[in-house]
Structure formats: C-alpha cells, structure tokens
C-alpha cells in the first residue's frame, strides 16, 4: 500500500473516534423514544477542521421526502419469511450492520473503498468528500439508527457499491479473488433487499465525483448515467424470466430514485401501463338447465377469494400459458371463456428474494385514491398466486401448463412461499388489481350448477384414451344388458298372450 493511502486511513480512524464522541454526547441529550437518533453528520458538522466545498457541477438536490426513503420492515414479516429479507453476505446501511453472517465481507468492503478513493487521486480531501456525499443521508432511515453506524461507514458502503459497479462494467465483474467470486451471486441479491440500502443520491454524488476525476475512463465515457450501469448490472443475461433482460436505457428516465431496489421495481412494472383488469368486462356463464339467472340457482354474494387451481380445473377452468414474443408482462393475467391466461414465472431462490422485496416495497410506497388504498401490481400478483396455490396439487396444475417453471426442491416449497408471503400483506388486499376477475371466476364456479357435475364427470372419466375406452365399453355393456332385458320382457309378455 502506498504511503498517502496509509495516512488517509489513520486520519479516518481518528476522525471516526472524535465524531463518535460528539454523537454520543448529542444523542444522550436530544434523543427521545418517539424519534430516531440524530444523524451523525449533523453533529459531525461541529468539527472545525471539516470544510465542505460543493462544486456547482456536482451538486445534487436532496429529495424532499427524505425521511421516508428507507423503511425497516416489521419483525413479524421478517420472521415469517426468513432468508428473504435478510442479507446473506453483505450488509448495506445501518439496519443489518454488524450481522454475524456479513462480518467476513467487511474487509472486502474496505478494500473496495480504498480502490475507489484511488480513482479520485490524492488531491481529493476524504473528509470533505464524506461530508459532501453523505449530507442529510442518515435522515433517510426511519426509526432508531445505531450510533455505531456513522457517516463514514455509510460512505464506505456507497464507495463499495460504486466500485463494484465500475469493476463489473470494466469487465472484471468483481472476481478479484476466490471469496468475491463465490459470493458474487449472493451480493447480487443482497443489494436488492428493501432495507439493505443506501440513499441513491449518495451513490449519484460518488459517481459524479468519479466522472469528474476520470473523464477519460471507458466507463465514464460509455455510461454517463449511473442508472445505465445499474440496469446493466442487475439485468444482464436474463437474470429473471419476468424482468426484461438488457432493457433499452431510454425506457427508464433519470429521476430522484430512493435506492437500487426502486430502480429494479420500475424496471419490473415499467410496461405495466395497460388498464387494470378491474376495468375489463365480466363474462357471465349459464348452466345447462338455463336457470342460473333465476332464483333456483342463485347463490349468496360472491366471495372475495377464489378456489385453488386444482379445484378450478376440476370445475372446468382451463389454465393457459400467455406468451409474448418480445416483452413479458408478469401482471397480465386474464380470465375469459373459462380460460385463465397467466404469463410464465420462473421460481428459484433468487426470484423468491426479488419478488418478496418488490412485494414489500410495493406496499411501502402505497398510494391513496381518496381514502382508498390503491393496491400495487406486485401486491396484487402475490394475492392472486396465494389464492391459486394452496397445496402441491395446485402447483402441479400450473407446472403442467408451463405457467410455473419450478426450480426449487419440491412443489410444497413453492406453495409455502406464496402462502407465507401472502399472509404478510401490510395493506388491505380485498380490493386489488384482479378483483373483478375474481368475481368473474366465482360467477362461473358457483352459478354453473349443472356444468359442475358434467365437468367433474368428464375430468374423472375422460382424462385419457384408456378411461374413455373403458367408459365406452361399460356403456356398450349397459346398452346390451338393457336390450337383453327388454327382449326378455317382451318374450315373456308374448307368451302370456
């Protein structure tokens, strides 16, 4: 390690102790039970030797709703879905800082931090850079934040992410040693956990500093926008069947994103601009006797849920794989003429993590239409799959039709995933994107009284050619027996007369 770099590390360590003492004193006098701890940066501003000079060309506006950027998930949701909302190898931000499973990565984060600072050169004051890039950043975290997590640690996390993205874009893909090579897949998913984030404006400021001092760098020349690098990193080589691989950069404009997960969220729902299924016309079905519209077949009000896929198939509902040639919209589920069309969903451990965190973020950013909660598309999709999948038999129905591409150990694991996730909804999901479709399914399922028995008979006795042949043979024997009986009766009657 070169001499200037060693000196810089010593300065950081002393400043960290000094700032921590100031934070402790301020916190003891000002913190209350109802508010979060005072951001470390505000107290750090009392240190006289830190002077912040913001260059006009790199100034970044801080979002107004800064205090709601990153929210800690409730304990019951994390406990019910263990492994989906907890980082496995790398902690980012204060909520998972010090977690035992992430301690081995701390040394690698330091190494990436120093590698990024080397790109800026010795003429950059590291204290000023920390003050600039982390200004008001600690206010983005809701609830109480550990005093052990300082702005210097936040700066290190930001530098780690930016250096990781730059190395990947340069072709190294961060496989600089065996540990990083083995952990790269886990790091990929850890960076998409809803409360394992740093504010996006911190990353933006760091990347602007990188471009400022590396104007001739191939990454800076090829990707003037940080969003472009992030899109390439998280969606290369078709990581998810339901997220568009290598999407056009122009489809995702520059915006005040909250964090990395929000960018991925926008990629998932960006083509979801068609009218909601709630606006689609419903289809009415009549039973064979033609009395479903009368009081004879009329039932009680429609339930809010629908039966599982296996039961619906027994009652004549067909499941069809909806295939799009160019773009797959995972939320484009329709029901028409006894057929429910659903796009393919490839489920593995990685897609479980991403879907669960998109599900959580979809509810954290919920919108209101007056006093009514507008349920987002990801939450609606989870509610739909939770209704369709109750047991392994339901999973097998969707697998046979190619709707579920199951890469997990067994069908029970898929059913357990959707059931546990669906039970942890943070908002009321009684009125969601597929509410009218549910009503349509129930109208067919409940009102077709004669069709139910006919379809049940057909599904049980006409599933394959052998059962059909057996049934036909039984019918022929029955007919022959009936004819023989009638012939015997006629003979007996003729003899009597």
TrEMBL record:
Transmembrane segments annotated in the record for this chain: 469-490
Database matches in Pfam families: DUF247
Keywords of the record: Membrane, Transmembrane, Transmembrane helix
UniProt keyword annotation of Transmembrane present: yes
InterPro entries documented for this protein: DUF247_pln
Protein name: Uncharacterized protein
Organism of derivation: Oryza punctata
């Amino acid at each position: 390690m070169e001499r200037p770099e060693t000196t810089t590390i010593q300065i950081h360590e002393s400043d960290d102790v000094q700032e921590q003492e100031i934070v402790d004193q301020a916190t003891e006098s000002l913190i209350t039970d109802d508010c979060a701890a005072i951001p470390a940066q505000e107290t750090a501003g009392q240190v006289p030797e830190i002077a912040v000079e913001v260059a006009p060309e790199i100034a970044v506006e801080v979002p107004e709703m800064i205090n709601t950027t990153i929210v800690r998930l409730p304990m019951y949701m994390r406990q019910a879905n263990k492994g989906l909302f907890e980082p496995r190898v790398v902690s980012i931000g204060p909520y998972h800082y010090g977690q035992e499973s992430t301690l081995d990565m701390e040394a690698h984060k330091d190494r990436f931090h120093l590698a990024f600072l080397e790109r800026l050169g010795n003429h950059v004051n590291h204290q000023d850079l920390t003050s600039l890039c982390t200004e008001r950043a600690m206010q983005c975290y809701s609830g109480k934040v550990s005093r052990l997590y300082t702005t210097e640690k936040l700066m290190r996390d930001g530098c780690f992410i930016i250096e990781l993205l730059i190395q990947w874009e340069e072709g190294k893909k961060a496989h600089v040693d065996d540990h990083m090579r083995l952990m790269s897949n886990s790091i990929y998913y850890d960076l998409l956990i809803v409360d394992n984030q740093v504010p996006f404006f911190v990353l933006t400021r760091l990347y602007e500093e990188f471009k400022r001092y590396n104007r001739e760098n191939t990454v800076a020349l090829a990707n003037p926008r940080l969003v472009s690098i992030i899109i390439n990193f998280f969606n290369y080589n078709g990581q998810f069947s339901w997220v568009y691989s290598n999407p056009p950069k122009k489809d995702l404009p520059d915006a005040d994103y909250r964090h990395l997960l929000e960018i991925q969220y926008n990629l998932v729902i960006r083509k979801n601009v068609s009218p909601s299924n709630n606006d689609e016309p419903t289809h009415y079905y009549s039973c064979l006797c033609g009395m479903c519209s009368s009081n004879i077949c009329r039932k009680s009000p429609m339930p809010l849920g629908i039966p599982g896929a296996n039961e619906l198939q027994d009652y004549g509902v067909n499941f069809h794989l909806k295939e799009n040639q160019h773009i797959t919209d995972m939320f484009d589920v329709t029901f028409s003429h006894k057929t429910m069309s659903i796009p393919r969903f490839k489920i593995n451990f990685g897609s479980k993590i991403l879907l669960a965190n998109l599900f959580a973020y979809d509810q954290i950013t919920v919108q209101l239409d007056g006093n009514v909660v507008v349920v987002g598309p990801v939450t609606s999709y989870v509610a739909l799959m939770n209704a369709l999948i109750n047991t392994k038999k339901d999973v097998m129905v969707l697998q046979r039709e190619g709707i579920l591409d199951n890469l997990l150990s067994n069908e029970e694991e898929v059913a357990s995933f959707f059931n546990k996730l669906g039970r942890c909804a943070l908002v009321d999901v009684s009125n969601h994107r597929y509410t009218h479709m549910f009503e349509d399914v129930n109208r067919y399922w409940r009102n077709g009284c004669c069709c139910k028995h006919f379809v049940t008979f057909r599904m049980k006795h006409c599933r394959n050619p052998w059962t059909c042949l057996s049934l036909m043979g039984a019918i022929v024997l029955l007919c022959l027996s009936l004819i023989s009986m009638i012939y015997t009766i006629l003979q007996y009657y003729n003899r009597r007369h």
